[in-house]
Design a protein that fits this description.
The protein is an alpha/beta fold and 345 residues long. The protein has one domain (6-291): Nitrilase/N-carbamoyl-D-aminoacid amidohydrolase (4-Layer Sandwich), CATH 3.60.110.10. It is 28% helix and 23% strand. The chain is built from 10 helices and 12 strands. It has helices at 21-37, 56-59, 62-75, 82-94, 172-179, 202-217, 230-237, 243-247, 287-291, 319-324, and strands at 6-13, 42-44, 97-106, 109-120, 126-131, 154-156, 159-165, 185-190, 220-225, 254-258, 264-270, 274-281. The strands form 2 sheets. It has a 6-stranded mixed β-sheet. The chain has a 6-stranded mixed β-sheet with strand order 6-7-8-9-10-11, with helices on one face. A hairpin with a 5-residue loop joins strand 10 (254-258) and strand 11 (264-270). The protein is globular and about 60 Å long. The two termini are 34 Å apart. This is Aliphatic nitrilase.
C-alpha cells in the first residue's frame, strides 16, 4: 500500500551575516531550531546563504568588484568541512531535513567557487550537493559552472526531494531531469535581486517560476529567498553610495510554499525576514497526474529523448589514481560523509 508523507515545511527568508561564515552558520542553526520548534521537518534556506551573494558584481565594474571576490573566496566553505557538519548536527538534533545554499570553494583551487545547494536528512547525513549549472548574468564573474552529476533527487523522510538555485528554476530541461527521477518536493533557493531592470518584478517572477514547476510536475515547491540587510547595504554603499538606493528597492524577495496546482499555500513573505510554514500532504500529487503526468503516461518518449550527461567535470584525469581506485573529490559529486556520531547530539 502506498503511504505518502504528511509533514510541515518551513521556508526561511533571511539575510546572512554578510561574509561572516561562522556567524551565519550560527544563525542557520538557530533558524533550524526555531523552525523545528514550530513542527517543521523540512527547512529550506536561501541561495548561497553561507554567507553572501555577490551584489557588488551588479553595481561595480569587474575591477572594482575584484577585492570583494577575494573576500567571498576566503569566506567560502569546503565540502565536507566543519561548517556544514555543524549544520548537519543541528539537523540531526532537531530531526529535520535541511537544504541550504553555500558558496563552495574548490578543494584544489582557492579562486574557484561554486553556487551550491547542500541536502541533509533528519539523521544529520549529508546526502549530496547540487552546483548551479549556469551562473546567471553578472554571476558569471563569481561562480564556476556545475555539472550534470549533481542533478539528483534524494529519498528522505519527507519524500523524494530535489532542488535548483534561482535562475536555473527557469531551465525546463533541468527541472524535467529532476521530475523524471520522481521528485515530489522541490526546493527553489533564491536571492533578493533589487538591481534587476526597473520593469522587472522579482518577487512575482519567483512566484511564477515556482508555480510553473509545481503545476507542470504536480509537485510541491518550497521557495526560500534571502533578504538584503542594512548591513549589506552599508558595506557595499560605503564605496559606492549610489548602490544604497538600488539595493533598497522593494518587492524583490518572495518566499512561500506552493501546491501541485501551482497555487500558494498560506501567506507568503515579501521582502521581510521571517519563516513561512505550510502543511504538505504528498497524496495531493496523485489526482492531478491522472490528467497530466509529464514524466509518465502524458508524454511520448518515442518522440522525445532527454539525455543527461552525469560525467563529473574535473581539471584533469589521472590514470594512476583511477587505477588505484582513488577519486578526485572535487571533480564532481561524490557522496559526502555523514556527520560523525559524536557531533550528532
Amino acid at each position: 500500500m502506498l503511504n505518502l508523507p504528511v509533514f510541515k515545511a518551513a521556508a526561511v527568508q533571511a539575510a546572512p551575516v554578510f561574509l561572516d561564515t561562522d556567524a551565519t552558520v550560527d544563525k542557520t542553526c538557530a533558524l533550524i531550531a526555531e523552525a523545528a520548534g514550530h513542527g517543521a521537518t523540512l527547512v529550506a534556506f536561501p541561495e548561497v546563504f553561507v554567507s553572501a551573494y555577490p551584489y557588488w558584481s551588479w553595481v561595480m565594474n569587474p575591477v572594482q568588484g575584484s577585492p570583494w571576490f577575494e573576500k567571498l573566496c576566503k569566506s567560502a566553505i569546503e565540502l565536507p568541512g566543519p561548517e556544514i557538519r555543524r549544520i548537519a548536527q543541528a539537523a540531526r538534533q532537531h530531526r529535520v531535513n535541511v537544504v541550504v545554499g553555500v558558496n563552495e570553494r574548490s578543494r584544489h583551487g582557492v579562486g574557484t567557487i561554486y553556487n551550491t545547494m547542500v541536502f541533509i536528512n533528519d539523521e544529520g547525513r549529508i546526502l549530496g550537493r547540487h552546483r548551479k549549472l549556469v551562473p546567471t548574468w553578472a554571476e558569471k564573474l563569481t561562480w564556476a559552472h556545475g555539472d550534470g552529476e549533481s542533478l539528483r533527487v534524494y529519498d528522505t523522510s519527507v519524500g523524494k526531494l530535489g532542488g535548483l538555485a534561482c535562475g536555473e528554476n527557469t531551465n525546463t530541461l533541468a527541472r524535467f531531469a529532476l521530475l523524471a527521477q520522481g521528485e515530489m518536493v522541490h526546493v527553489a533557493s533564491y536571492i533578493s535581486l533589487p538591481v534587476a531592470p526597473p520593469d522587472y518584478d522579482m518577487a512575482e517572477a519567483i512566484r511564477l517560476r515556482a508555480a510553473a514547476h509545481s503545476f507542470e510536475g504536480k509537485v510541491f515547491t518550497v521557495v526560500s529567498c534571502s533578504t538584503i540587510s542594512t548591513e549589506i547595504q552599508d558595506a557595499i554603499s560605503a564605496s559606492h553610495p549610489e548602490a544604497r538606493e538600488m539595493l533598497a528597492r522593494r518587492n524583490s524577495a518572495f518566499s512561500g510554499i506552493l501546491g501541485p496546482d501551482g497555487r500558494v499555500i498560506g501567506e507568503p513573505l515579501i521582502d521581510d525576514e521571517g519563516i513561512v510554514y505550510a502543511d504538505i500532504d504528498l497524496s495531493r500529487c496523485i489526482q492531478p497526474r491522472q490528467m497530466h503526468d509529464i514524466v509518465g503516461h502524458y508524454n511520448r518518449f518515442d518522440v522525445f529523448d532527454l539525455r543527461v550527461n552525469r560525467r563529473p567535470l574535473q581539471a584533469a584525469r589521472y590514470d594512476d589514481l583511477a587505477d588505484s581506485g582513488a577519486a578526485d573529490l572535487d571533480g564532481g559529486f561524490e557522496p559526502l560523509p555523514e556527520a560523525p556520531r559524536e557531533a550528532r547530539g
